[in-house]
Amino acid sequence: MKKLYILSLFCCLFTISLWSQNSDTKKADRHFDRFEYVDAIDAYEKLIRKGKANNYVYRQLAIANYKTSNFQDSEQFFKRYLRNNRNASAEDYYTYAQALLSNEKIEDYKKAMLDFSEKAPRDSRAKAFLENPNYFEELKSMTPRFELNQLSLNSEYSDFGAYEYNGKLYFLSARNETRKTYGWNKQPALDIFVADNVGGTFKNSKEIVGEINTKFHEGTLAITNDGSTIYFTRNDFLNGNYRKDEDGVNHLKIYKATLVNGSFQDIVDLPFNDVSFSNANPALSPDETELYFSSDRPGGYGASDLYVVKIKEDGSFGQPRNLGPTVNTERRENFPYIDRENTLYFSSDGHLGLGGLDVYYAKSDSGDFLPPQNLGSPLNSNADDFAFTYNGNVEKGYVSSNRTEKKKGKRIDNIYRANLVHPLEQTSLLVEVVDAKTDRFLENAQVIFYDEDQNEFTRSRTNASGVSKNFLPTGQKFDLQVNMSNYESQSISLRIPKTQMLIRVALEPKLSPAEAELLILQERIFFEYDDASIRPEAALELDKLISILKENPELNIKVISHTDERGSKAYNMELSQRRAENTVNYLVENGIDSTRLTSEGKGKLEPVNSCDSGCSEEEHEENRRSEFEIVD
Fold this sequence. Notes:
Region (Disordered): 598-632
Strand order of the largest sheet: 1-28-25-24
Keywords: Cell outer membrane, Membrane, Signal
Radius of gyration: 36 Å
Mean pLDDT: 90
Strand content: 25-35%
Low-confidence stretches: 1-19
Distance between the termini: 80 Å
Organism: Psychroflexus longus
Shape: elongated
Domain OmpA-like: 514-632
Helix content: 10-25%
Protein name: OmpA family protein
Number of strands: 39
């Protein structure tokens, strides 16, 4: 039940063109229409070997392989089909793009998404992609939120949908080999199992006690806080009655069972179920007044949508409400889960992701949900990642994934424990790096964030646009350092805001030795009348000189100081020497080796302005100066 349609047998995901069916494809089509995809693939491939394949056959094979998660073969058959069919639907291009994404062919994926967007420009998926065509690289650069470990209770069959309650782990498995084989993937029908916690490891897996498991599929579940009631998914089968719609399709329903003497009994069909569509994947709100679920009922936005229904005090139910286009897309949204903070988690292949189904979360806001956020890798991968449940109190959850191939083209669902290693809430920080002199964007600048303990948290490089995108825990303090060859490094301290932030960093170019010499020769500082102390504005100029000297350790300088023409020759000589010494002392106190410095006072012997005919105060000040000379 890793995908809702595995149990519900959704027939609306792909529209099958009938014009290419013929007597040769009749057997294969029958398997396909019954959702027996493994046998359908074998039958269509026999037609290829007999030279009876056409575009229709390639499309059927592309879809069947995609549904069985054989993305490599799906890609190849889509290529054959699309190469010879310019009238392919937008959905064909989208599914082809998803196959490429799962095969990690990112540039080809982007091209296919552009084709899809051209055919369906108003589609929410097209709009989202065109707004951020490089989202994949951004998702891959996100700081991992979770650390994953595969559970030892996984079997050689499909295992998924872990739900921890009261120290036990409930999950779905196809390991009961006595069940009828399911034509979709040639595995036994799914049952609900429960495992004990033995020293921190879940063991002793066994079928849930009671009347829940049948010869048909059972699916994901939710248990009330007191443990007295369980909501679960099952094929439309109750009291021996296996029902199909008018097209012969058996759908999914959500049922309720009651705990009686340690056994779940008294199975009840919920009133908002229907024989003509599916409801599945129940999830209870923290206060148990609402039940979230997924459904392909009429009036939705896509193949399956997320809904919520009120549970009234008397145990009756209100009318299901669609969660709307912020959450739902034209594709599949399923496996909802609500944590204690009313955060919604779910899986989707309609929002921008890493491939297949990805897990997203959406924060609650005044009864609605904010735009969903992808939880990034390693929780998500290029395969199907789904059925995520999470307990914020212990910062631990479970996710299911078919990311591991048993052999080429054959994937298996497994359960992984997900431990939170970095805060769930992250903010996107854009660091734009430019040349301070020219405003030119600087590519390949190094961007490093250090946490409050000065441990390196993340590092990246700017792209051709001079931008580095980083994801950091919201509300925490960091030091940002930007480094670039031939530029002065810069550091900035900041607290990460809740919303995306752009930080522009202008780096000062480092000087060449010749440029440094020229600047030194141009440098001078000034003094108050009859005073040798370093003025504040002079200190600022000396700080610039110190930077130049530190960048150019091969340069040695001589400080030459002067006075104005007032006062005796002897006094001015002594005053100028004190000015020179104070200038040198300032440089030494701020990190310049004294061996690189010499000084000389010249009194009033070399004025800038001759005052034989009198000088203004400004002209006198220009004479009271320290100058700098490069020496060997």
